[in-house]
Amino acid sequence: MGEAGFLRSGVMQGFRPAWGYVVDDEERGATIDHLLQKFTEASARKAALVSEAKEFAARIGEVREALGNPYYYSGGNYGRPENADESIAKFSGYKSHEPALRLAHALRDADRELSALREHLLQLGVDVE
Known about the structure:
disordered N terminus, rod-shaped, mainly alpha, single chain
């Protein structure tokens, strides 16, 4: 340990990140390794969710065919022939929103986890971007 209460890593002894004290270089290294592993896993999970969302968007017609139409047109133009598939008669409620909402929530959760991990790593002097 250095003279001014710093560890070899340059982190001040007693430094307290949001999730606990960093006691020594070994513990700091293990903490960083653990957080980097979690960051890698969360990044992979987000990438898989983005891929799933793109696949979902590509087959939105099939989803609506299977689960129904989550919207309908009303007003002056609803009766036009090109809007026949989007009329209130074809409205099925919001069942076809559910898969997209699940993906959106999972993506939001992955982003939040990545942000928290990024912040913890920055507190330890590691920039992952």
